[in-house]
Write a structure and sequence with these properties.
The protein is an alpha/beta fold. The chain has two domains: 110 residues, Enolase-like, domain 1 (2-Layer Sandwich), CATH 3.30.390; 234 residues, TIM Barrel, CATH 3.20.20.120. The chain contains 13 helices and 17 strands.
């Protein structure tokens, strides 16, 4: 690692909860109520030898105190990866080493050297914003308008939440509205856009087949979490898809996924794994992605409920051959400048800037640390009142 002294020590760690604001409120999905506009974003800033890096982390103050005084050699491998014992702060540490070496994280991890790098992404904002509407026709128009909004922002690919009949609507009415909306979105986004649907486990096997058969002309790319993972249901679904000549991937892994999920994928029952980028983690995804590549299983990490993953996924992507798309959860995070990331023609450009290419508003961050966060320092390990 160029320009890095392994004996440099962690001098300070600060934590604050910032707020992300979506462009419009996000509605319900198959199993939850309205998601709203505001999203909490936990950010940690680490100072080592006067150099600062920041990123998402849920480390506690007590755990952070134990990191004060550790050296670069304690925290990182010679290749610039974070050692396993410190994955709780892997994102701020990766940003730090990028700042210290003046290299983007993707170059440090993958060796990719380029100033023109982009990754396919999809708009993940098409929720159940139509439940107040009695008419399916009106509901379709509303979701179509949201898809058109995404097109204007540079998106070409979209994920639609389905499963309205699981809780929010009568079963048959909900299924029919799901089908109408899928067809309506395809109508306005055109034939070249990828469309995915996500049932959040709100379907059963038979409902899944009915919806996929009825929307065959929409040429869906994948169905996500159609029902709670069950190897018999998954096997039946995959056989049915083959008989129907439907080239639709079955993907899963977002939430409390079965411990057998990867094994079932290796048996051909699941086409892509979706463990969350934040809770599962960057380095664990590097390892799993390599394992999945060996058996031609695709990678599509979950990233909803905190837009920080929008950015780090672009730095993970070049390390995994089977990486599909970034789930783009758009929001404005107060105190973070993400304008170096641009979406155009269905891809997000990944900036050739140090670390993750994000800028932290120092004065704003310090105000939030003082009001609702904490700070630990070398020697005194003083903490600010909560």
């Amino acid at each position: 690692m160029k320009n890095i002294n392994k004996n440099w020590k962690v001098e300070k760690i600060e934590w604050a909860r910032l707020t992300g604001i979506r462009p419009r409120p996000a509605g319900c999905n198959a199993r939850l109520g309205v998601h709203g506009c505001e999203v909490p974003i936990d950010i940690v800033r680490i100072t080592i030898d006067g150099i600062q890096g920041f990123g998402w982390s849920r480390i506690t103050k007590e755990s952070a105190e134990k990191l004060i005084g550790l050296t670069v050699g304690d925290l990182f491998t010679d290749g610039g990866r974070v050692k396993e014992n410190y994955y709780s702060v892997e994102f701020p540490l990766l940003d730090w080493i990028g700042q210290a070496t003046t290299m983007p994280v993707y170059e440090i991890i993958s060796g990719l050297k380029t100033s023109n790098y982009s990754v396919p992404c999809y708009d993940t904002s098409l929720y159940f914003d139509d439940l107040h509407l009695e008419s399916d026709q009106d509901a379709v128009k509303l979701i179509q308008s949201q898809a058109l909004e995404g097109l204007r922002k540079g998106h070409r690919h979209f994920k639609i939440k389905v499963g309205r009949g699981a809780m929010h609507m009568p079963l048959e009415e909900g299924k029919n509205r799901d089908i109408s909306i899928i067809k309506g979105v395809r109508e306005v986004v055109g034939p070249d856009s990828k469309i995915m649907i996500d049932a959040n486990n709100g379907y059963n096997l038979n409902l899944t087949k009915e919806v996929l058969a009825a929307t065959a002309d929409a040429k869906l790319t994948w169905i996500e979490e159609p029902f709670h993972e069950d190897p018999e249901y998954l096997k039946d679904l995959k056989l049915w898809l083959d008989k129907q000549n439907l080239n639709i991937m079955v993907v899963d892994g977002e939430g409390d996924a079965s411990l057998n999920l990867v094994g079932w994928a290796k048996e051909g029952l699941i086409d892509a794994i979706q463990y969350d980028i934040r809770s599962y983690g960057f380095h664990k995804w590097l390892e799993l992605g390599a394992e999945l590549d060996q058996v031609n299983i695709k990678t599509a990490p979950h990233n909803y409920g905190g837009s920080y993953g929008n950015f780090v996924l672009g730095h993970l992507a070049p390390n995994i051959n089977g990486f599909l798309l970034i789930e783009w959860d758009e929001m404005n995070i107060h105190g973070i400048d993400d304008t170096a990331y641009r979406i155009n023609a269905g891809k997000v450009s990944i900036p050739n800037l140090p670390g993750f290419g994000l800028k932290l508003d120092d004065s704003y961050f310090l105000k939030v640390v003082e009001s609702n966060g904490w700070s630990v320092k070398m020697n005194t390990k003083e903490t600010l009142p909560k």
